[in-house]
Amino acid sequence: MFVILLGAPGAGKGTQAEIISGKLGLAHVATGDLFRQAVEKNDMLGRLVKGYMEKGLLVPDEVTIRVLSERLNGPDCRTGCILDGFPRTLEQARALDKTMSERGQAVDVAVYIEVPEAELLKRLSGRWICRKCQAPYHEVSSPPKVAGRCDKCGGELYQRADDKKETVRERLKVYFDQTAPLLDYYSKKGKLARVDGRLAIEEVSGRIMSHLHAGSTRTK
Ligand code: AP5
Ligand code: MG
Ligand code: ZN
User: How far is 24 from 70, CA to CA, in rounded Å?
Assistant: First the structure.
């Protein structure tokens, strides 16, 4: 099963991808995580994408599509995965469809996690991320058991550089301009499912799971 999680910055894509991939035994593929790992390593890709990420801008499609295609060739993505943060532009969505059809496969469902803007700002300003495994926490809604340490791997928690107020504003603008049109793209294909992302984390996961189980409930 190939599942896309769509939503604005802070909507809960990473949080839900982590939970759903665990439940279904599917790989969690996040272009943002792949880019952040490259920036940490300071390798060629990291040096290329750092400036875009710091400004809250999208990495050029050509680079993003290449990185994603390589990741999809991994043995853990042969029969499915949860895509978090990809596609983000119509060009990326079309490239994904092309790659999938060359493999004789298709995207099953794009789940849109809907959250109002004021809530997004609160979530991003209180977010902490694990440096090792990238698991997201929130100082109010989902704090770690031990302050500053990841529950899953013990890694150090840090705040993302692009979670600064001005950068968040830019990321939201980019989202509404370039990514929101994808809702229409997947809706026209009959593949869009909407989930109320304001609910508690477990409640959102439950609703996503029921959409995955019942393809017929997808909304247009
Ligand atoms: P990326 O890493 O994908 O960031 P994003 O889309 O801005 O989304 P976030 O990771 O900020 O939010 P999220 O939806 O994952 O929320 P989370 O689960 O953490 O991209 C970063 C950058 O990389 C981009 O700006 C761009 O430069 C580049 N990039 C990446 N992909 C690209 C692409 N395809 N093309 C081009 N460039 C690309 O949750 C947020 C917080 O809320 C957490 O603290 C969490 O604990 C909390 N929370 C989650 N759910 C709930 C809930 N239900 N109730 C209360 N709190 C909750
Ligand atoms: Mg994320
Ligand atoms: Zn961790």
Answer: 22
